[in-house]
Fold this protein.
Amino acid sequence: QSLAAQHLYTRETQTKKLVVSMESHPDIPQRMKSVVCHGPGDYRMEEIAVPQVGPGEILVKVLAVGICAGDAKCFAGAPHFWGDAKRPSYVQPPITPGHEFIGEVVRLGEGSGKKYGLEIGDHAISEQIVPCWDCRFCFRGGYNMCVPHDIYGFHQKSPGAMASYMKYPAGSVNYKVPKSIPTWQAAFIEPLSCAIHAVKLGDIQFHHVVVVAGCGPLGLGMVAAAKQKNPAKLIAVDLFDWKLDVAKACGADVVLNPNKCDVVAEVKKMTDGYGCDVYIEATGHPASVVQGLHMIAKLGTFVEYSVFGQETTVDWTIISDMKELTVRGGHLSPNSYPKAISMIHNAELPLDRIITHRFPLEDFQKGIDMVNNSSESIKIVLFP
């Protein structure tokens, strides 16, 4: 509610004409390099105009930008992004992608410095969605479900960070980031904040046995965040042993590989046949959903936090008549960025092992291909 309150402006203020008074770095070019999405599989490196900023807006020089699994699935043409017979396209091409980023403030539109406590030269991050602060969900505090849903990198109102510069529009939710955090680590604030939100949804208690399925960037962040809830046992599941080793470094008590054992049977063996209390699904693969429903205990909580490339079919009788489960869907990371910044600032997870590859922006295609493959990488960060 506090975020909603500070961003709800009156119509009079929104429409009032203001004389722009800006603070600015002296050496900002007119043109910049940018990755531009034109359609599925059609991303190009182009030269475009540097964004202009108005009252309440911020221009940053992009220091680092991560490639999300969602970015890679968007590139591959997933219906979630490009629509199908049941839903319209979410992406509005041509658009600069990228919603995991860190930037250096180079221009402050009127009022933005005071509002966000920022000065020229500060490192700053913006939450991945730019809320409208006018719809039902924003008004009630659920700004991550804002109806216009302007996530950076998909809509014309909010171009993303795979470029030399980007704009944080008026109404965006922005934070100063300590310069002591290396830029390649600061690019992980966004995915870690999502992981924190998923863990919150699980409502983990001290006596719980918790399973995190998937040890990609989100899953490893979930393991690190869940560990801070001090559950009775924290189990990580993944198909790659080397990723499970990273999960141990993040705090997992037990790691299981479905290629090497019956993970459902193993979890039930550890829990006197009951199953886990909380199952957090972070793979985006249908098999993991089915696995979780069979693994979870009666009255358990199933948290789904993934973007799927295909439809998933399960026996819903398990959810209702057999187990009376609580199923929580997770989206974005409301009110979670400050905790993510703190965890990274305090070195509470092994980012040197999670961020496996760093490339120049020009190698974006190589990075996307590696994310879609996933066997050789965890998190990939690009540098404009």
